[in-house]
Amino acid sequence: MLTIILTIVGLVAALLAFGFFRSADHRNITLDNEVTINASMDEVFDLVRYLENFPRWSPFLAQDPDQQYEVRGVDGKPGATFHWNGRGGKDVGFQEIITVEDAKYIEMRCDIQKPFVAHPTFAYTFKQTPQGVRVSQHFNVKSGAVDALFMWAFGARKEMDSTNQQGLDLLKQAAEKTP
């Protein structure tokens, strides 16, 4: 009986060690996505800069149409925040504008409180190209070892990347006014 218990404990310890080893790259997740939009620089930049426009291209609102939200502060300026409460209070947080450089760069910080605690950042750069306005999104989130283990186990990196690209695709639709 003791041999069986020690074997089970050893297997659990080995699985946890393997999981922590495999999940190490989830302690600091960085994702880069981009989209080229056939619209004016001002229109594209303002869709991102003014948080009142976020519902037009939010992947989170697309996934949860009943989400409640409000903008606080001076919209479009550092310190303005977009607060959300979704899925019956199970998805709560806010994003805050940190930096705005006209027609060049916007940085936002999120404070996710539910369903987990996280503080990702989003940085958007804008560049006029012959094909249109290229919007590049740089996403970063850091986490502890246990959170990284769960993110690895549940494929969070792929889901985050997909959601971020969905947001940029919705931004393109909103700017180009396509259904």
Task: Summarize the structure in words.
This protein is an alpha+beta fold and 179 residues long. Helix content is 36%, strand content 35%. It has five helices and seven strands. A seven-stranded antiparallel sheet has the order 1-7-6-5-4-3-2. Helix 2 crosses helix 5. The longest helix has 21 residues. 23% of the residues are buried. The model has no long low-confidence stretch (mean pLDDT 86).
Distance between the termini: 64 Å
Overall mean confidence score, pLDDT: 86
CA radius of gyration:
20 Å
The low-confidence parts are none
Largest sheet: 7 strands, antiparallel
**Count of DSSP helices?**
5
- What's the helical proportion of residues? 25-40%
By DSSP, the count of extended strands is 7
What coarse outline follows from CA principal-axis ratios? Answer: elongated
Return the string of H and E elements: HEHHEEEEEEHH
Strand fraction band? 25-35%
Category from helices, strands and their pairing: alpha+beta
**Major sheet: order of its strands?**
1-7-6-5-4-3-2
